[in-house]
What we know:
The chain is an all-alpha fold and 113 residues long. 83% of the residues lie in helices and 0% in strands. It is built from three helices and no strands. It has helices at 11-62, 68-88, 92-112. Helix 1 packs antiparallel against helix 2, helix 1 runs parallel beside helix 3 and helix 2 (68-88) runs antiparallel to helix 3 (92-112). 26% of the residues are buried. The mean pLDDT is 83.
Amino acid sequence: MSGRPDSDTDPETADSEAAADQDETEAPADDEEDARRARWTAAGTGAALTLAGLAAALLRLTRSAPAPVPAAYAGGAAVCAAATVLGSRGRTRRALWLLVAGVMVMALGDQFD
Length: 113
């Protein structure tokens, strides 16, 4: 494609190209912010579920409950603690699956009661 050297670009075209360049430079900052938010969310949720599991295990341990009940709560809390570590290191997808597994283990412990 050859153009005449005296041809000039349209002002609208130049503005849209400048806007596209500006959007490309802002995208990595947004991605980093989203990743940081995902890490904080995974770590916070994991910590909250870990504390809830440990509290439930202690409450079930002090009452007359079968032995598998507090063990299941404590095991689910341990899985959620592992998810907290993974989430804080950026492995948010694996952390999510571990959080789901930990809550399922705790729910299984609730079924033993």
